[in-house]
Amino acid sequence: MKREILLMNAYAGYYLDEKKLKSSSSGGVASAISEAIIDRGGIVYGAVYSEDFHSVLYGYAEKKNELWKFKGSKYVYVNKYVMKDGDKISVYKDVISEIKKERIVLFTGLGCDIAYLKKIVRKEAVDAHKLFTIELMCDGVTDELIQREFVNIEKMYRTKVIDFNIRYKEEGWVPAYIYAKFENGKEYKQLLSSSEYGFASLNYKKKACYECQFKGENHQGDIIAADFWGCRPGMKEYNQNGVSLILTLSDKGNILLNYLDREQFYLRKTDAQYALFCNPRYFTAHERYEKWDLFDSIIRKKGLHKAVKVCAELSVPDRFTGVESDELVLWGTGRCFNQYVAMIKEMCSISLVVDSDEKKWGKELECGFICQSPNILKGKEDIFVLIMIENVSSAFQIANKLLDMKIGKFDHISNWLFYADMFEKV
Predict the structure, then answer these.
(1) CA 48, CA 73: separation in Å to the nearest integer?
(2) Which is more confident, 344 or 113?
(3) Stretch 81-90: mean pLDDT, rounded?
(4) pTM of the entire structure?
(5) 3-state secondary structure string, 3-51?
């Protein structure tokens, strides 16, 4: 694996146009490359919402003003077809058709979808020298049932959803919000990490995703695009409205980066080893949720709200019993820590506060605690760690470090407070 990292080129990047950047999930690299492909007469494929926002399928664009439909993360399974003249056509068949026309084709999707496309290309012996691929770093997708159930909030608003975004930038890159706009002009916003959609997308992946083959040395794209988790204020690559991590895995990947308009898109080489350390899903698939079967059974019989309520409540006693019997450790001393530390002190006794930033080690915080190195946790058994990072995806890197330390009792602050609220109501 170390050899692979050393051979890889890693970049940080983002749109210089603030409006385009804020409408992108991270830094907007997939959109910027898509624009460049269309400028060269090419066609672009990517995931889009269905007209009613109940599901996700593939779409295509041949003009820049059509690229808006690809923007925003889609956390649900993508149906493998495109709509043309009212008919469903296999996206793979359609891509092959465009390749045979000698057009430049850009296909943006998950590693599994790119792998299947490449399989068909080989099977049909198609000359694919003009086919380029962008692989989206994947944490696993949830069932489209989650999307359909959640969008049913339109029943409460008595109007149709006309826009939907699972990674809406209300305050900047993080934290992520769910956003829905309705036909009557009303809007819905909620923190993703404290929502039923967030709970489901985190815990209820498609079964195959837990055993994903397209990790580590088996990534499929010419480029991998991801959020640059770990990019923080003070780094030259940082932008508060989002930063893309871009990994080039082939000569075609380097060509795609050369296509970027550098007057429109900021691009800077970065440390691949550090970037991947902060993005563990490059190497491993998400671990299966221990209550997956129960969640699956309830959601199919009684719906999303009941499934989240039951599974969350089952987790409450473990979390609070653990905090009462173990030493409570807070990991992270940024904005999230400052916002919640007083509340946590009222609920529990805090034993230690640690942070990944070595510049903070040994310094006294405003709340009176001394910030320490996470290394102090090694070998400790009776501890419960609260991850004080706002964005759930960012917290994965800390969760993986805890697992490496053989510390299994931890939670993300948003989930923990969500359970705390439910616990008070039980």
Answers:
(1) 9
(2) 113
(3) 93
(4) 0.76
(5) HHHHHCEEEEEEECCHHHHHCCCCCCHHHHHHHHHHHCCCEEEEEEECC
